Amino acid sequence: MSGWIKLHRSITQSWVWSDKPYTKGQAWIDILMMVNHTDTKILVGNEIVDVERGQKLWSILEMSKRWGWSRKKVSNFLNRLETDSMLAQNRTSKYTMVTVVNYDLYQDEEHQKNIKRTSKEHQKNTNKNDKNVKNNNIYIYSANFEKMWSLYPNKKGKGKISDSKKKEIFGIGEEFERCISRYKSYVEKEKLSGFKDLQYQNGSTFFNNGYVDYLDKNYKETEETKTWGW
Predict the structure, then answer these.
(1) What is the DSSP letter of 158?
(2) Are 51 and 42 in contact (CB under 8 A)?
(3) Which residues, other chains included, contact 171 with Cβ-Cβ below 8 Å and sequence gap of 6+?
């Protein structure tokens, strides 16, 4: 078979696509649709990461949740694709950079249109892309914040979380989710120990500075905590 068809990215919002777990073929097509079609820059913590056309910053955990797979299955699948020269991957402690090999083969028509742009159009798009990068970063910070906020029990003071704090929380990555889990375990343990009136801090208090004691570098699991299973 030869030739190719177009698939709009909106298909990922359809019920026919959202059924889990994904098949391997579905996961591969999902990668093709999720990678960037233009070069961009993304701020990860204090690092600006260049994400080129055909690349995507992802985490094994995100892919696991999206596809309905275990993290081990995701990791094995990516390794198999890499062995077959279908993609390359660069894993760090904060993210996995996925690069589709020969991405233009899957998007040839769009690639040709990009080549034929005039210099004026290119400059216009460059300015637009710079604005989009900024907007994308704000969206990424906010989306991550909403995810973390949904995990926290006391949802008071949401409007008191600044954009700079959301950016800081994004830079902490999955560790922030562990902070919430550790704090929740602490409160529940204390309630079982007799402090039944103990209440969770307001969300604004915890998200602004209350989480610090529960960061990996500050948190030490006690023998009592281990015994309780938290």
Answers:
(1) G
(2) yes
(3) 44, 45, 46
Nearest to 198 by CA among 150, 144, 154, 228: 154
Return the percentage of the chain with pLDDT > 70, whole number: 81
Q: Is the pLDDT of residue 48 over 50?
A: yes
Partners of 22 in beta bridges? none
Q: Residue 76 and residue 118: Cα distance in Å, rounded?
A: 43
pLDDT > 70? residue 128: no
Q: Can you say whether residue 64 is alpha, beta or left, with left for phi > 0 and alpha for psi between -120 and 50 degrees? A: alpha
Tell me which residue has tokens 């994400």. 51
Asked if 162 contacts 170 with a C-beta cutoff of 8 angstroms, the reply is: no
- Which of the two residues, 133 and 164, has the higher pLDDT score? 164
200 pLDDT higher than 80: yes
Say how far apart CA 58 and CA 20 lie, in whole Å.
19
Four-way CATH pick for 9-116: 1.10.10.10, 3.40.190.10, 3.30.110.10, 2.60.260.20: 1.10.10.10
Q: What is the DSSP string of 9-27?
A: GGGGGSHHHH-SSPPHHHH
To which residue do tokens 């402690």 refer? 93
pLDDT band at 224 (very low <50, low <70, confident <90, very high): very low
Distance CA 58, CA 106 (A): 20
